[in-house]
Amino acid sequence: MNLFSVLAFLIPLPLFFDLRSLSFIIHQTQFDQVLLLDDGAPIPIGLVALLSILIFSSPQFFGIRVNKAWPYALSCLAVFNLIAANRVDNFKIIAVSLPILLLLIFSAALSNRVIAEKLSRGYIAGLLFQAYMHVVSILLNTRDFADIITASRNFFGYEIYQALVSYSAVVSLAGGAGVIFALSFNSIRLRVLIMTAPIYVIVIFAARKAAIVDLLIIYMIISLLLLRSLIHPGVGSLRKSRLTNFLFLILLSCMIYLFIDLVPREITLNNALDQRGDSYDVFLGELQNLSFLQVLLGYASGWGGYSNFIVELIARSGFIGMFAYVLGLTFAARRFYGVLFLLTGDKARMISGDFYMKSWFAFALGSLIVGNLVNLNIQLPYFIINFLMINICFLYFYSRYFPEKFLSSVGS
After folding, report:
1. Percent of the chain clearing pLDDT 70 (strictly above)
2. Number of domains present in the structure of the chain
């Protein structure tokens, strides 16, 4: 392992440092209470690792490519920041700006396949290490079945900071990536399944509502694959994969049953509405009493009371600020994913009709949207850094195992 791999290994580890107290956030788990947040300015060690990667890399390794997406995205972000600056504190402004900035930084940095390979291998090693050790911790700390959820936010007696928000979302996303990657082969890849298994143990035991939506999206993808193999029975590759898809479907059905029926936590739509419905009612009631200017430029101070990222943007910066932010995020994301498709060569392009790549992007986008309709995942540095790294890893390993699905294009 070289320096880049070691630093990438640290990114998925849920270890946080408080910039205000200059200490790591470490709490012993209390089985009779839930610890979600901590006062201070927490940053994940993965952010420090990422900044270190950028510092230690030189221009000859990272061919910095700044194109027109940069001024467009940064201008939109500046509009949002100017509108929200008087209502949102500086630390939150930085946190909300980070997704756009990271998309641009990654898009500028990821131009060298060797560096991308080292980052991907180091990150996957760190992710699997964290997942396997966490499962061991769950088994050791589960005193009885009712303790499963508490044990899932516990790492050998210590609380996993943001365990029920960003950490569970990252684990769920990684699990989906593993399943889609395994499905892309014509026969079952036992190694991929074994690597993915501990991730889904954590997903099931954590019993997060957003995670079951991820499971349902994967269920739909497998169902479409199975349906396609039945409609086209003469196609060899589909015929070979039919049994694989059927077995995955059975396995996923069992996982969803475990998630909903066995975990000691109510997982229903009514329960979800009870938890989030009041804040939406308050928001809709507030909108009816606002002036036209407040609707355009925002009206409420603070951040986090609505548990919905889009609602937060509207409340703090109005529809103009929300539109500016989403537009800036779109410019930056378009540039990021455009660069990702260059990982296999200077002028490589992905075959547009590939079902598994489309499935991955549909799953990742669906997971991102759901996570920010019920939580505020995108503003959490741990989530957004890992979200981008999982995307990078999926495309890198997919291009490595299926090079025939990448074509060299003419022109830049």
Report:
1. 72
2. 1
